[in-house]
Specification:
128 residues; alpha+beta; Thiol Ester Dehydrase, Chain A; six-stranded antiparallel β-sheet; 2 helices; 6 strands
Length: 128
Amino acid sequence: MRFHTRKWVKPQDLNPNGTLFGGRLLEWIDEECALYSIIQLENPKVVTKYMSEINFVSSACQGDIIEIGIDVVKFGNSSITLRSEVRNKMSRETIISIENIVMVGLDANGKPKPHGKIQIEFVKDRLQ
């Protein structure tokens, strides 16, 4: 699992119980998966098609630093399937895991666009 982004849990991210609001965390995961997919598929038009069961394992509190991890599960014709785990940066305790997140690249008409990718590519390798 590659952990790409860190977030600092602030007061505006909390639910009435004083812990990280699940909707905010899902927003962060969705944005991270979209950015990752845009880079991997080399397509600025990417949408979330599907998220599998979401498993909230523990919570985060104000002041915690969390990190969002992503792994590629597989490449489809016009999609990329990702797995995500979010953990507490300091304790390494898992906060949430999602086994399958399907992101689809679109063409100018909003239709799925084949990408021809079969493996993870790193930007530094594209520049050579």
